[in-house]
Amino acid sequence: MAELNVTKKSISSLFSEMQGTKFIIPDYQRPYKWDLEKCEILWQDLTSFFEERTVSEEYYLGTVVTCKNDESGKIEIEVIDGQQRITSLLLLLRAFYSKLENSAIEDDNIAGLKNQIAPCIWDVNPISGRVSDTSLIHIESRVATESDNEVFHAILRTGKSKPNATDLYSKNYDYFFSKCEEYAMNNPIHWQEFCVSILKNCIILPIDCEKLDTALTIFSTLNDRGMPLSDSDIFKAQIYRTKNTEEEKSEFTNSWRELTETVDDAGMTLDALFRNYSHVIRGRSRDKTKEIALRKFYAGEKFEKLKQPNLMKELQELAEFWLTVKQGKSTFQGREFISQQSFKYLHCLNHYPNEYWKYVTSAYFFKNKDLDSFYTSFSEYLATLISFLFAEFVQKPTVNKIKDSCYQFCIDIFEGKPLTIITSIPPEFSTTLAQTVNYKIARAMILLHAYLNPNQIDMIESNFEIEHIFPRVWQAANYNGWNHEDAKVYLERYGNKVAIGKKLNIQAGNGYFGQKKNKYKDSPIANVNDLSKYPSDDWVKTDIEAREKLFLESIVSFFHSNLHKK
């Protein structure tokens, strides 16, 4: 049997064929988001089509992806994609119907139009064709954390919104109703034809799927301009389904809203938070198997991982930790928690080419957050992690090189052991390190070198830039001992680069070294300030070579001290 069925339906057919069933907006969907601007565009598109159409012309309104669900014992049609459009169209049809209901005189045309619209919104009596119960509407929103679901249902039942309502359902319904009245007043002859045109000539392409996975795949493919369902949308719905009472559901709604706000403030996504937390779970369960897709990970054992009683508490706590990191605050939950040295290391890690360091750090946070020693031990842990990750990237710059080690680190942490470091610093390491100057790791290396200067007390600004001491743009007449061939070789070496503030980098520009020194002395970055004290006003090849030697020695010494502790 085919997994999907694709047809072309008019608005009238799409909705009126729902007798005895209804569209369900599942709990994992996002809340209704159409604002007045989108409703205005829809209205303008519909009126323009009607006024400019040919006799048989049709107006295409897009696709709707659905999936049948009979788990409750009755067939329901879950809307996987198109919920915003379907919801808005039903609000529009209800506005049309309300306008017809309010007509001073109900002639045959008015009655006929009502009889065409009514089956789109409600179940009708199969014999009389009349609506006997306005509660039997053809849509139900079950969106988790959406407090206005009942407002939507009430508007469809009654055709009324509350005065001064601020929810989108009410605002959009009021807008459509006002436009219906306005159009009927300005176009009394064509008003009824306009209603028929929307019902008969506006086309939806329904894609009916047998399996939810198929529907979600099609949704992701078609929805390149929209917002595909994220893993966290699915997780939200699964957690919501575990809540039995209205009080529990309300509490979860508030908790999820708070979590979303914290995650946004932390510069993360909910999916990223769940990814971090998955490695906490893996560490606790001593799981070092190959990582699987996030949705598949949490879906295991019928989403058992999402049914744990402390789940929301721990997710919120983890989000607050990363918010603290982003804000650079030393205190967490009322106590000194993150040292200045730790923030320096975290700044360097933020420029590491992948996020596996965050997964390990999330595990470290949960295992050690309640210890009085966290303030000091955290910086020691970060120094070890940086040394391992950076050294491994130098030797093999791929994410696969460090994955298995990071899985093991999470286990080590929850077993209370030192990180299992399986790496070494070979004799040729300095040469290899020097060659990474054009790799993704280079920015992080230059920042680390800046922080290794014992005189670097303060944090370096987050949007620091990389200064070329010998500039990329120069004139041979002004630079002692340089030619273009030498410049190509030396320009991009570590010895010629330094972390610098954005404003100062602009001020220093492409000036001669002797001129730059006067700017460098104002820098709060110790490495830059040191350059201002350089005895010569020339910056030549031997200077770059000498500075690079010191750069490499500093980095390698740091790695050695952290990877070969006794």
TrEMBL record:
Residues 12-239 form the GmrSD restriction endonucleases N-terminal domain. Transmembrane segments: none annotated. Residues 434-552 form the GmrSD restriction endonucleases C-terminal domain. Coiled coil: none annotated. It comes from the Bacteria. This is DUF262 domain-containing protein. It comes from Planktothrix agardhii (Oscillatoria agardhii).
